[in-house]
Design a protein that fits this description.
By secondary structure, the protein is an alpha+beta fold. Helix content is about 50%, strand content about 15%. The longest helix is centred in the middle third of the chain and has 37 residues, at about 230-265. Bound molecules: coenzyme a persulfide. Keywords: FAD, Flavoprotein, Oxidoreductase.
Amino acid sequence: MDFAYNDEQKEIIKVVRDLVEKEIKPYALEMDETEALREGLLDKLAAQGLLGVAIPEEFGGSGLDAVTIAAIYEELGKGCAGTATTVAANALASYPVIIAGNHGLKKRYFDIINNDHLAAFALTEPGTGSDAGSVSTQARKTEDGGGYLLNGTKCFITNGALAEVFVVFANTRKGGGIRGLTAFIVRKGTPGFTIGKAENKMGIRASNTTELIFQDCFVPVANRLGREGQGFRIAMNTLDAARPFVGAVSVGIAEAAFRACSEYAKVRVQFDKPIASFQMVQAMIADMAMKIEGARLLVQRACWMKDEGLDFSREAAIAKCNASDVAMQVTVDAVQVMGGYGYMKEYPVEKYMRDAKIMQIYEGTNQIQRLVIANKTLY
Ligand code: COS
């Protein structure tokens, strides 16, 4: 068992950390307020290959292992979870193609991302959240059999207005249900495909979240991922792969909040002493440290299991659920340690607290994660 990053991983982490310190952290609040990435930031992220971390090398990506990807996302999470979400959505939208795309589709899809474009994963609908099998977007085969007409609305889609390509889940069976779920690749600008309203969110505000609307949108058979009815399994395998990365971003948020409130506690003087010298504050700091260390190890273990080709579905759910709960607890406590100042936008911890909340919700609520963990533990 080796707990250390290798030299290559250390070098990658250093490059990302420098980028975060210089280009992301100083502008995190500004991006939170303008609800957009700073001009030019996406190009800088793309120039470091961060949009294609999950894409295999043979298709022009960096083909990084999950442990390294998680380390990258933790660094991004320390700087701005909205930016991390924008970038991580590309990995989320890469997995269905890695899992089920044929060679030609992979080449076409990944060439677009490698050309510095964002991608999006579109499963959720107004009536479809935790019950992922209940997708009501329809994919009706055209009479000549050459393709499908997509009709329906997706919501809460990260990168909706920014992405060039989308993985869209629709139902090819009349009655709907899990067995009809099918995944398609749809390019921005395809007739019948429009971007709906952008959401005004509590946190991760630098990331873009929109509706997607499909009205008789023609998608050729060649853009179908796998077979009809394979969509649910593709979605589940994708979420398994991506959930540890939500855990990694959560660890980043928690670490940033922990550091901010620790530094503050050392200089904030009350009753003639730095508040860090008071045992009640020390207990909070110690609890935060334990939770963060544990969360990081669980994220790394889930990623390591994936890299080793082991069954990691349960560990992915554990990693995501635990780390996001930790991020919520730690950020709430960080605000508490900083008192009134923690509540103000002058300090970064209120943003960390808002950002942490979505980690418990997206890519499967923590209730669903507990369900997965319990089922995989009991049966
Ligand atoms: N990997 C592979 N296959 C899986 C799987 C996984 N992780 N989870 C379920 N399956 C398979 C099952 O084996 C089953 O296959 P068979 O019918 O061939 O036996 C099938 O999928 C249905 O499984 P199940 O009955 O458990 O499905 P449910 O409808 O009960 O849903 C949950 C399972 C709740 C786990 C699933 O709907 C889920 O993950 N929901 C959350 C969705 C989500 O994360 N949304 C976030 C939005 S996307 S960012």
